[in-house]
Write a structure and sequence with these properties.
alpha+beta
């Protein structure tokens, strides 16, 4: 037997072009947490292979560029190995070349005050805290001489 043995994670015969479903590949290399999330991203138009929006069953081959919009950022990866089974993080990192732009620094993200749904209108104390947080100007009130936000 002179056949070269392939990786334990790839499927097929050595020498032929391997292809795998795009949703399965995205899940296998740990770009998404579950395969159903990967399939939903494909159906929602968040996955492009070589610039074309694809369905979950689209075949991915070595050398294809995949763009995935997930978790608020865009991932751009080039397939270097076609795998169908989910593998460890170290092995998964070898299956693609990451060309994604770096994630935005944490300082740029703005914290937003969030109220619990159904909590009603803010109390006077909460409203003043919100005004201080948003740096709203304070206007003098007519009665009592107390300051109130505009």
């Amino acid at each position: 037997m002179s056949a070269v043995r392939g990786s334990q994670y790839s499927v097929g015969v050595v020498g032929e072009q391997l292809s795998v479903r795009v949703d399965s590949w995205i899940w296998s290399v740990r770009l998404t947490k579950t395969r159903s999330i990967a399939a939903d991203a494909c159906r929602g138009g968040h996955v492009r292979v070589n610039g074309v929006r694809v369905k979950p069953a689209h075949a991915v081959r070595v050398g294809d560029e995949i763009r995935l919009r997930h978790d608020g950022r865009e991932r751009i990866v080039v397939v270097s190995r076609a795998i169908t089974k989910r593998v460890g993080a170290a092995v998964a990192a070898e299956c693609y070349v990451d060309k994604s732009p770096p994630p935005p620094p944490r300082e740029e993200t703005v914290t937003v005050a969030v109220r619990a749904r159904g909590a009603g209108r803010p109390t006077k104390h909460e409203r003043r805290s919100i005004d201080r947080l948003l740096a709203r100007p304070v206007v003098e009130e007519r009665r009592g001489g107390r300051a109130r936000p505009d």
